[in-house]
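Notes from the 1:1 (GR / supervisor)

We went over the backlog. Supervisor wanted to see one worked example end to end before approving the batch request, so GR pasted a single chain during the call. The sequence is below; no edits were made to it. Supervisor asked that the structure be written out right there so they could see what the output format looks like.
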Amino acid sequence: MNARPLPVSDNKEQAAKDVAQGRRVLLAEMEGLRALSESLNGDFARAVETVHAMKTTPGRNGRLIVAGIGKSGHVCRKLAATLASTGTPSYFVHPAEASHGDLGMITENDIVLLLSNSGMNSELSDLIAYTRRFGITLIAMTGKADSPLAQHADIVLLVPKMPEACPNGLAPTTSTTMMLALGDALAVALLERMGLTPEQFKVFHPGGKLGQKLKKVSDIMHKYDALPRVPATAKMDQALIALTEKNLGAVLVEGEGRRLEGIITDGDLKRHMGPDLLQRNVADIMTRTPRTIAPEALAAEALELMTRTPGHYLTSLVVMDGAAIAGLIRVQDCLQAGVA
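Structure output shown during the call:
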């Protein structure tokens, strides 16, 4: 089925106005973010310290509960996902659903982060009262310091009062952008506090592009038992049989104790092609110093070594666990695994 043709306007004046409007919105929100950056103070540091302490106190096992309604609620869902993916256990609770039983999901070990630009939504009252009754730490993210939410909170992350990008000043635009960015700042500050490594980060992102980039060589290499291997005393006819049977584009030349003595690749065969090739010794044909990599290295590093080695392009690397052959990784293995 053919897609409908997109509308095309010849009205250049209207097109210019649309672009100008888009730029105006972006500039307004940039000004909001600049003001937000300049407003950060000790309250932000207290929020980071409080959540970090919740995560690191032995036996506490608390979570950061993120709650909000309306557009703030949509920001909350994204923030909860960001926090969870960066090592801070977190989930979203809808304030209205909390009033109908979901308050039971929140424990005394948790911290509640409640978002509301006005801080005056009636739907928040039950959740605020619950935190006060059971001594649950409440962090408010709001645009009004004198609101009920701010007055009852333990820590207030105050969002500067800036004009909304909406020409009527009604639709939440600049305010929600600032709240979203402030939530990201909190998540990344917590990540830095925890010292999360790329390998630990992968635990929260096993799928998708990030997980693919953080795959280790050991995750996708061809392991030792699957490799074509011949001793250095073998003739080339044996090497070609092993090459054909395993179909990995290379044969490893192995000494005692899995010691690597060399490798024979398709390139080696082309360089030594001749009528007596099959009768020649493997040791005469092999490359004696093949490039190697450790199994715990990232697959992205292996791909970098193979494709950007100065002077020539490699199709495979021998994986070495110390002095012993552990496997073989090829360019096509990396590409098939999505490492690029």
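Supervisor's comment: The mean pLDDT is 90.
Batch request approved.
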